[in-house]
Amino acid sequence: MDRIILYGGNRLTGEVNVSGAKNAILPILAATVVEGNESTIFNVPNLRDVEVMEKILLALGCTIKRVDNIMWVNSKPLDQVKIPDELAREMRSSIILMGAMLSRCGEVIISYPGGCEIGPRPIDMHLKALKDLGAEIEESYGFIHCRASKLKGTEIQLDYPSVGATENIILAAVKAEGTTIIRNAAREPEIVDLQNYLNKAGARISGAGTSVIIIEGVNEFKKDVTHYTMPDRIVAGTYMIASAITRGEIILKNIITDHLQAVIAKLKEAGCLIYSDENSLKIIGPERINSIEMVQTLPYPGFPTDMQAQIMALLSIANGISIISETVFENRFKHVEELIRMGANIKTFGKVAIIKGVKELTGTKTTAKDLRGGASLVLAGLVAKGRTEIENVYHIKRGYEDFHKILKGLGANIELVE
Ligand SMILES: CC(=O)N[C@H]1[C@@H](OP(=O)(O)OP(=O)(O)OC[C@H]2O[C@@H](n3ccc(=O)[nH]c3=O)[C@H](O)[C@@H]2O)O[C@H](CO)[C@@H](O)[C@@H]1O
Ligand SMILES: C=C(OP(=O)(O)O)C(=O)O
């Protein structure tokens, strides 16, 4: 099993070209099946989740070619409606294929999705919305069978701005009869990227990035699409913390700085110096991190839950007491026990963590329990005294392209042992 081994203490300096966003490319790849057409997609990150989505598209009958970070998907030959069970269980985003396949084939059979264990992650809002659009849904033995002879546009009020549910509804509604309006839609930038991709294919969607999205159903899409995947704001945020935690000086290129405002604000509070323009930034870590009174995770544009574990690693060496309140997921503190093993002083009370900064973390054997939790252990290891070993690296590979290589290039003493 892969392990990361690192020796902390090095100051990280240099430049990082931030990769394309996992949470944008996954729904876009699902969207490639909506119409039998060809998509050329640039800036596709090399990630385990992307490989799983590729395997699903191949199993459905699509043909795919990939050279480095460019992917060509031809969805014309698609001829299957069942998503292979073992692949659907590998990642959460498989669920987004429900809406896309209903649009394309009027039918899809899929098992309950897998992904990071960060809470129960129900899909009730997805299913309710698809039913509202006219789909019939049968659930048995862990499988979901959705069918719709014709989807009809409707008004959908989401109880919570769920990212996945918003994407599923958009994908189901693009070719429905009439107009669909989503209220209390998720406002994440990745939804804007999905809208941009689909509109290039001929869809008529407006409002992504706001809480009201309007989808006018169209009969036919244009044939081919070329798209450049947006940069990964969570990868960018993770390298910002790598700089902050090591008193480093890192320049990030190929970012959309605006997507990072919530993270920038908190890292400035922690004492970092940040200089930015539209598509790049420089972050300089302070001698000692300031504690932060409160970090509360929220839907975008609030502080992202996908950065919660990483900022916790940073605050574990802050000068003072910090509070983190996780409001998005039920159970996203699995990294806490691992950080404690490294000497952090953290107590959790339900969805709140109180972090009393310590002067020094110490390296030890740890286990990545999920993607961002795994990244937080790497960040802690960068500054911990001595040797840190991290098991279950496959979690980290779900969301970070060449993580150890990039950190090594910045000066970290880090190896991946395969
Ligand atoms: C591939 C992808 O884009 N993943 C992101 C997406 O996940 P995902 O789309 O799964 O996250 P959601 O926004 O749907 O989930 C937010 C909250 O809503 C709840 N919920 C969601 C749907 C539903 O039908 N019922 C329900 O109760 C979830 O359990 C969770 O507590 O957004 C999350 C929140 O920003 C991020 O952490 C994930 O990285
Ligand atoms: C939780 C995450 O991903 P997913 O929704 O794919 O499990 C994440 O990217 O941090």
From TrEMBL:
<feature type="active site" description="Proton donor">
    <location>
        <position position="116"/>
    </location>
</feature>
<dbReference type="GO" id="GO:0005737">
    <property type="term" value="C:cytoplasm"/>
</dbReference>
<dbReference type="InterPro" id="IPR005750">
    <property type="entry name" value="UDP_GlcNAc_COvinyl_MurA"/>
</dbReference>
<keyword id="KW-0808">Transferase</keyword>
<comment type="similarity">
    <text>Belongs to the EPSP synthase family. MurA subfamily.</text>
</comment>
<keyword id="KW-0133">Cell shape</keyword>
<comment type="pathway">
    <text>Cell wall biogenesis; peptidoglycan biosynthesis.</text>
</comment>
<feature type="binding site">
    <location>
        <begin position="22"/>
        <end position="23"/>
    </location>
    <ligand>
        <name>phosphoenolpyruvate</name>
    </ligand>
</feature>
<dbReference type="Pfam" id="PF00275">
    <property type="entry name" value="EPSP_synthase"/>
</dbReference>
<keyword id="KW-0131">Cell cycle</keyword>
<dbReference type="InterPro" id="IPR001986">
    <property type="entry name" value="Enolpyruvate_Tfrase_dom"/>
</dbReference>
<feature type="binding site">
    <location>
        <position position="92"/>
    </location>
    <ligand>
        <name>UDP-N-acetyl-alpha-D-glucosamine</name>
    </ligand>
</feature>
<keyword id="KW-0963">Cytoplasm</keyword>
<keyword id="KW-0961">Cell wall biogenesis/degradation</keyword>
<feature type="binding site">
    <location>
        <position position="328"/>
    </location>
    <ligand>
        <name>UDP-N-acetyl-alpha-D-glucosamine</name>
    </ligand>
</feature>
<dbReference type="InterPro" id="IPR036968">
    <property type="entry name" value="Enolpyruvate_Tfrase_sf"/>
</dbReference>
<dbReference type="GO" id="GO:0051301">
    <property type="term" value="P:cell division"/>
</dbReference>
<protein>
    <recommendedName>
        <fullName>UDP-N-acetylglucosamine 1-carboxyvinyltransferase</fullName>
        <ecNumber>2.5.1.7</ecNumber>
    </recommendedName>
</protein>
<dbReference type="InterPro" id="IPR050068">
    <property type="entry name" value="MurA_subfamily"/>
</dbReference>
<dbReference type="GO" id="GO:0019277">
    <property type="term" value="P:UDP-N-acetylgalactosamine biosynthetic process"/>
</dbReference>
<feature type="domain" description="Enolpyruvate transferase">
    <location>
        <begin position="8"/>
        <end position="406"/>
    </location>
</feature>
<feature type="modified residue" description="2-(S-cysteinyl)pyruvic acid O-phosphothioketal">
    <location>
        <position position="116"/>
    </location>
</feature>
<comment type="function">
    <text>Cell wall formation. Adds enolpyruvyl to UDP-N-acetylglucosamine.</text>
</comment>
<keyword id="KW-0132">Cell division</keyword>
<dbReference type="GO" id="GO:0008760">
    <property type="term" value="F:UDP-N-acetylglucosamine 1-carboxyvinyltransferase activity"/>
</dbReference>
<keyword id="KW-0573">Peptidoglycan synthesis</keyword>
<dbReference type="GO" id="GO:0008360">
    <property type="term" value="P:regulation of cell shape"/>
</dbReference>
<dbReference type="GO" id="GO:0071555">
    <property type="term" value="P:cell wall organization"/>
</dbReference>
<feature type="binding site">
    <location>
        <position position="306"/>
    </location>
    <ligand>
        <name>UDP-N-acetyl-alpha-D-glucosamine</name>
    </ligand>
</feature>
<dbReference type="InterPro" id="IPR013792">
    <property type="entry name" value="RNA3'P_cycl/enolpyr_Trfase_a/b"/>
</dbReference>
<dbReference type="GO" id="GO:0009252">
    <property type="term" value="P:peptidoglycan biosynthetic process"/>
</dbReference>
<keyword id="KW-0670">Pyruvate</keyword>
